[in-house]
Design brief:
By secondary structure, this protein is an all-alpha fold. Helix content is 74%, strand content 0%. It folds into two domains: 1-148, no CATH class; 160-234, no CATH class. Helix 9 crosses helix 10. 11% of the residues are buried.
């Protein structure tokens, strides 16, 4: 990099804006910090279309992208300086970061319709930021630990071919996950109480179905087109 300070400043500015813009927009417009698309979609399609004003705008959920850029830069700098952490720091930090991120995501259960909760602009503004960056922060920490120190014997598991395959399906999962969730919710025919355990069970089941659908999409669309594009470009 010819101008490393300029690059650091640019990434830092972009990351700051990706965090501050959703907070300010949500706070000033008094929007919801987390859209429950399953309920709102089933109740009113017209209301669901209003979600496009916030959810589909790239600058409202661009934090993971810039966190990924910052992670790659941090990892390279740490490797250049030969920085390594102790295994206590690696595993202890991973446990703490995982617990905090999981609790932050499960906090969203308080906003379901059966839990009456007054609207607090600052709370929703903060949730709009946290909701899109929790697992990005978790991935950032794990990548830093993996590429600088490693996870001991678990490093071989992470480098397993299965993990590589699941990584290749990430974009396809991103494309199909909302559709899978909508299909799961639409099959409910009786009143359901959403507790922490039931949400975790539904989440695990939806993740499995999303990867199955993503595999089909990858084999039918993404993989063939990748070969065609390589032939054209190569």
């Amino acid at each position: 990099m010819k101008k490393p300070k300029f690059g650091i400043g640019l990434i830092g500015t972009a990351l700051f804006l990706s965090v501050s813009v959703p907070f300010l927009v949500t706070f000033m417009t008094k929007r919801k910090g987390m859209y429950l698309m399953n309920f709102e979609y089933l109740q009113s399609m017209r209301f669901y279309l209003s979600v496009n004003e916030s959810y589909r705008l790239s600058y409202m959920r661009a934090t993971p992208f810039f966190v990924g850029l910052a992670t790659s830069f941090i990892v390279e700098k740490l490797k250049e300086n030969k920085v390594k952490f102790s295994y206590i720091t690696v595993f202890g930090g991973t446990f703490i970061v995982s617990a905090v991120c999981l609790c932050a995501q499960l906090y969203g259960a308080k906003f379901h319709p059966q839990h009456y909760r007054p609207y607090y602009p600052s709370e929703h503004a903060l949730l709009s930021v946290v909701n899109h960056c929790t697992w990005s922060v978790w991935g950032m920490w794990c990548c830093i630990c993996l590429f600088t120190t490693g996870y001991g014997p678990f490093t071989y598991v992470i480098n397993n071919r299965l993990f590589v395959v699941l990584g290749r399906l990430s974009y396809s999962v991103f494309l199909v996950n909302i559709t899978v969730i909508m299909m799961s919710i639409s099959t409910i025919r009786s009143p359901t109480y959403f507790s922490v355990s039931s949400l975790m069970d539904a989440g695990i089941f939806d993740v499995f179905k999303s990867y199955v659908m993503a595999l089909a999409l990858y084999l039918v669309v993404e993989a063939p087109f990748q070969k065609i594009i390589k032939r054209w470009i190569g």
